[in-house]
Write a structure and sequence with these properties.
Length: about 90
Amino acid sequence: MADHDENPDIDIDADEEGDEFDEMMDPMEALANFLATDDGETIATSLASLKDAALLMTKHMEKQNLILVKMLSAMSAMKGCECKPAAPTA
């Protein structure tokens, strides 16, 4: 067995470097850091904001559909008012 005092070429810090690998980050903490932005936004907060945006878009689309139905009804009523087509001119 070689002792550090006998062999001055052995780096004493090499033993300390080995300890760094023993103190690895918790896998769940590493995953949480990977899935969060620097601002602290996570997948859950992104999905919640997407849900809110989707609900808002749904409300707007419902209003748009109501307007389109009214326009189509009005155009259909106008088309029914025509008594006769205009006579062709020669």
